[in-house]
Amino acid sequence: MDGKIVILTGAGISAESGLGTFRDKDGIWTKHSIEDVATPEAFARDPARVQAFYNARRAQAAEATPNAAHVALAELQAARPDTVIVTQNVDGLHEAAGAKVIHMHGELSRALCAACRHRWDAPLEMRVGETCLLCGAPEARPDIVWFGEMPYHMEEILDHLLDADLFVAIGTSGLVYPAAGFVEEARIAGIDTVEINLEATEASALFDRTVTGPASEAVPAWVKGMLGR
Ligand code: NAD
Ligand code: ZN
C-alpha cells in the first residue's frame, strides 16, 4: 500500500515497557481519582499532590525503555517519512526509539508556566511554587493536558488525518475524545482504518479491521507487512 499513514498510539503501546495504562483492570485510575490529580482544579486545590503524582510517573518513565512496537513504528517512519505518529502518551518512548511524534496530551519531560504558557525541560522532580524562567510567576506545572483542557496540535492532526490513506489506532481504548473521534472522521473521509489492541474494544466496530495481540508482537508483524518484508 502506498500513501500517507496516520497512526494514533495510546497507553497500550507502552504497557510492555512497564508503564501502566489508565483504564485497564490495574490501571492508574483504579489507584488515583482523575479529580484529585489530573484537572486544573486539582492543581489549584492541592498542587503538592498533583506534582507528587507526576513526579512519580516521570521517574517511572525515565527508567522505561522502548519495546518492539515503538521500534517497529520508528522503522516504518524511517522507511516512509510521510508517516505521522500522533500519541496520547506523555512518556518519551517513541522518541527514544528514534521516531518523530506529535504529543497531543503533552509530555512528562516538559514544564509549563500556567501564567504565560512558556515551556521548558522539566527537572526530574518538580516542586510546588517553582518560578517560570520567562515571566517569574511561581506557577510552573507539568506540561500535561488535563481533563477539561484542549489537546495540543488538533488542527495539524486533523489536517494530516484528512490527507491520509490509512489510519491506524494502536493500544488505545477509544474512549477518550477527541482522539476517539479520529476513527469517525477517517470513516467519513473514506479512509481505510485498522485497530491494533490487546483485545477488541468498544470502538472496534468503527474500524475496517481489528488486529488483536500484544503491541510488541502485533505492531512489528503489521509493520513487516506494510514494508513488504
Ligand atoms: P487506556 O488506558 O484508556 O487504554 C489502554 C488500551 O491499551 C486498552 O484498550 C488496552 O486493551 C490496550 N492495551 C493494554 N495492554 C496492551 C498491550 N500490551 N498491547 C496492545 N494494547 C494493549 O489508554 P488510552 O486510550 O491511551 O487513554 C488515553 C489517556 O491515557 C491519555 O490521556 C494518555 O495521556 C494517558 N496515559 C498515558 C500513558 C503513557 O504516557 N505511557 C500511560 C497511561 C495513560
Ligand atoms: Zn511564565
- In round numbers, the mean pLDDT is 94
Instruction: Please summarize the sheet with the most strands.
Output: 6 strands, parallel
Can you write the helix and strand succession as a string?
EHHHHHEHEEEEHEHEEH
The oligomeric status of these chains comes to: single chain
Strand content: 15-25%
Strand segment tally:
9
Mass-distribution shape: globular
> How many angstroms separate the termini?
13 Å
Hetero ligands:
nicotinamide-adenine-dinucleotide, zinc ion
Radius of gyration: 18 Å
Counting DSSP H or I runs of 4 or more residues, the number of helices is: 9
Helix/strand/pairing class, anyone? alpha/beta
Spans of at least 5 consecutive residues with low confidence: none
- Largest beta sheet: what is the strand line-up? 3-2-1-7-8-9
Please give the share of residues in helix.
Answer: 25-40%
Overview of the structural elements:
It contains 9 helices and 9 strands. The chain has 229 residues and is an alpha/beta fold. The model has no long low-confidence stretch (mean pLDDT 94). The structure holds nicotinamide-adenine-dinucleotide and zinc ion.
Structure summary:
It contains nine helices and nine strands. The protein has helices at 12-15, 34-37, 40-45, 47-63, 68-79, 93-96, 154-162, 182-188, 215-226, and strands spanning 5-9, 84-87, 101-103, 106-113, 119-121, 140-144, 166-170, 192-197, 209-212.
SSE diagram, text form:
Elements: E1 5-9, H1 12-15, H2 34-37, H3 40-45, H4 47-63, H5 68-79, E2 84-87, H6 93-96, E3 101-103, E4 106-113, E5 119-121, E6 140-144, H7 154-162, E7 166-170, H8 182-188, E8 192-197, E9 209-212, H9 215-226
Parallel strand pairs: 1-2, 1-7, 2-3, 7-8, 8-9
Antiparallel strand pairs: 4-5, 4-6
Helix pairs in contact: 5-9
Bound molecules: nicotinamide-adenine-dinucleotide and zinc ion.
